[in-house]
Design brief:
The chain is an alpha/beta fold. It has two domains: 188 residues, Aspartate Aminotransferase, domain 1; 248 residues, Type I PLP-dependent aspartate aminotransferase-like (Major domain) (Aspartate Aminotransferase, domain 2). It is 46% helix and 15% strand. The protein has a seven-stranded mixed β-sheet with strand order 4-10-9-8-7-5-6, sandwiched between helices. Strand 2 and strand 3 form a beta hairpin. The two termini are 28 Å apart.
Length: 475
C-alpha cells in the first residue's frame, strides 16, 4: 500500500465522518452523498444492488439514499419523504429510531460498549431473564448473537448436541438465513444451489402439510436417517406471508413428541408482535422446544439475535459453557436496545396494535384485490406481515415502482416481484394506512391505463436499463 493511497484514505475517512456528524445536509452536500453512495456501491460493495434497487431506478435524476426517519416514515438525503412499508423486513417494529431505545443505547455507550469477555456482563443476564418471562412454556435460557441466521445456526447446533442426531426437516420456500447451516434449511434453490453441497441429512416438505412431515419422519425412522428437529416459521415471511392451516402447528407439536424430535420455531421475523401475538406460535397455543429471534429484538437500533430453550435441553450447554461462544454477540449496546425494545413493546401494546391495524389493512387490501381480480391472485398474512400476490412479476414490479413514485416504500420477495410484502412498523397510524391504500388505488388505476394503451406495454425494466439509470446518477 502506497503512502499516497493511505493519505487518500485518511482524507476520505475524514470527509465521511463529517457527513456522519451532520444532522442536516445542504442541497449540494446531499447530491454529493447520493452520487458517492451509488458510486461506492457499484465499485466497492456490489453493483447488483444498483441494478435491482427500485429506489435507484424510479427516483429521477438522483437515487433515493436513506438518511433519517421517525415512526413509520423516513426521508432520503434530498429530503424526500416516504411511508415505510418494508420496515427493514421486520427490523422496525417500533418505528425508526424509537427514542426510548436510542436513549438506552446512548446511556450504555457512555459506560461500556463491549464486554471484557471474562467478567459477567449484567445486561446479558437482564435480557436473558426478560426473555424467559415473555417466551411461551418453560423456555428459560438464551444465547445472544448478532443476526437471525446466527440464531438459526445456534438452534441447529443445540438440537444436534441435545439429541445426538444430525438431520432436520424444513419447509419448501421457507427462509432461515444464508450462512451454510441455515441455508441448508432454506427452501429455495436460487439461494441454495450456488453453495451446494450444504449440510447433509436435510429434508424439505410442503409448508403447512403436517402429513408430509409425519411421512418424512416415518421414512427417516425406517431407513435410519436420524432427525434432530423440525424447523418451521410460524408464518412464512420470505415466501409471501403464508399462513399455515389452523391445525398445522398443533399437529407438528404432536408429531414431534411422538417421534422424539425437537420442534424449532424460527421467530426471527414473526416474533416481538409482528403477527398480532408476541410470538407467532401463540396463534395456535403451541410451545416449541427452541425459539429463534432477531430483527425486531434490537428495537430497530442495534443488531441482536437469540436462540432460546428449556432447562432440560440447555443442559448440554451448561455442562460446557464454551462449546458455543461469540466475541461480539449480545454485547452491552445490543442488550440495552433489546431490553428497551421489550419494554416498549409491552408498554405501548405493540401486539394489539399489530393485530388491529393488520386486520384493518388486510380487509381493505382484500376489497381492493376483489375489484382488481385481473391483477391480484391473493392477499395473505397475519397482523402486519402481509403479502399481496399478483398474477406475474411484471405486475408486481409495476405496483412496487408505482407506489415508490408516490412516496410508499414496498418490496418484492428476495427473488421475485410477484409477491409484494407489506411489513410496516407496528406504530404506523390508521391515517398512514389509508394514505397507502389511496396511493395503491391510484397506482392500480394508472396500471390499468398502461395495460389498455398498446403504445405503453407493461414490462419491467431490464438490468441493463437500471444500470444505465445508475450511471446517470453517478455522472
Amino acid at each position: 500500500m502506497s503512502s499516497d493511497g493511505l493519505l487518500k484514505a485518511l482524507n476520505d475517512s475524514q470527509r465521511y465522518l463529517d457527513i456522519v456528524h451532520k444532522q442536516h445536509l445542504s442541497k449540494s452536500e446531499a447530491e454529493w452523498l447520493v452520487e458517492t453512495t451509488v458510486s461506492n456501491f457499484a465499485r466497492h460493495y456490489n453493483s447488483g444492488f444498483i441494478e435491482y434497487r427500485k429506489s435507484v431506478a424510479e427516483a429521477g435524476d438522483f437515487a433515493a439514499v436513506e438518511w433519517t426517519g421517525q415512526g413509520a416514515t423516513f426521508k432520503d438525503a434530498l429530503g424526500r419523504k416516504y411511508i415505510d412499508c418494508i420496515g427493514g423486513f421486520g427490523l422496525f417494529n417500533l418505528g425508526w429510531a424509537h427514542p426510548k431505545v436510542v436513549r438506552a443505547v446512548q446511556a450504555q455507550l457512555e459506560k461500556s460498549p463491549l464486554p471484557t469477555q471474562e467478567l459477567l456482563d449484567p445486561l446479558r443476564g437482564m435480557l436473558a431473564h426478560l426473555l424467559a418471562e415473555i417466551t411461551p412454556g418453560d423456555i428459560q435460557y438464551s444465547f445472544f448473537v448478532s443476526s437471525g441466521t446466527e440464531a438459526v445456526e445456534g438452534a441447529m447446533k443445540l438440537a444436534k448436541l441435545y439429541t445426538r442426531k444430525s438431520g432436520f426437516i424444513a419447509a419448501v420456500r421457507g427462509f432461515h438465513g444464508k450462512t451454510t447451516g441455515s441455508l441448508s434449511l432454506t427452501g429455495k434453490a436460487i439461494f441454495r444451489r450456488p453453495a451446494m453441497p450444504l449440510h447433509n441429512n436435510i429434508f424439505h416438505v410442503p409448508y403447512g402439510d403436517a402429513d408430509a412431515v409425519e411421512q418424512q419422519l416415518n421414512i427417516a425412522r425406517e431407513v435410519g436417517n436420524d432427525i434432530a428437529a423440525v424447523v418451521m416459521e410460524p408464518v412464512q415471511g420470505e415466501a409471501g406471508a403464508i399462513v399455515p392451516p389452523a391445525d398445522f402447528w398443533p399437529r407438528l407439536r404432536q408429531i414431534c413428541d411422538e417421534y422424539e424430535v425437537l420442534l424449532i420455531a424460527d421467530e426471527v421475523q414473526t416474533g416481538m408482535g409482528r403477527t398480532g401475538t408476541l410470538w407467532g406460535v401463540e396463534h395456535w397455543n403451541v410451545v416449541p422446544d427452541i425459539i429463534t429471534s432477531a430483527k425486531a429484538l434490537g428495537g430497530g437500533v442495534m443488531p441482536i439475535g437469540a436462540f432460546m430453550s428449556t432447562p432440560k435441553i440447555w443442559s448440554v450447554l451448561n455442562s460446557n459453557p464454551f462449546v458455543h461462544t461469540t466475541t461480539t454477540g449480545g454485547n452491552p449496546l445490543a442488550c440495552a436496545a433489546a431490553i428497551a425494545a421489550i419494554n416498549v413493546t409491552l408498554e405501548e401494546d405493540m401486539v394489539e396494535q399489530a393485530a388491529t391495524k393488520g386486520e384493518y389493512f388486510i380487509a381493505r387490501l382484500r376489497e381492493i384485490a376483489a375489484h382488481h381480480s385481473d391483477i391480484y391472485t391473493n392477499i395473505t398474512g397475519k397482523g402486519l406481515l402481509i403479502g399481496q400476490h399478483f398474477v406475474d412479476d411484471d405486475i408486481g414490479y409495476a405496483v412496487s415502482s408505482g407506489l415508490f413514485k408516490r412516496g410508499v416504500l414496498v418490496s418484492g420477495t428476495l427473488n421475485n416481484s410477484r409477491v409484494i410484502r407489506i411489513e410496516p412498523p407496528l406504530v404506523i397510524t390508521r391515517e398512514e394506512i389509508d394514505t397507502i391504500l389511496n396511493r395503491l388505488e391510484d397506482t392500480l388505476q394508472e396500471l390499468h391505463a398502461s395495460i389498455s394503451t398498446p403504445s405503453q406495454p407493461l414490462q419491467a425494466q431490464s438490468s441493463s436499463q437500471l444500470a444505465d439509470r445508475a450511471d446517470i446518477a453517478v455522472a
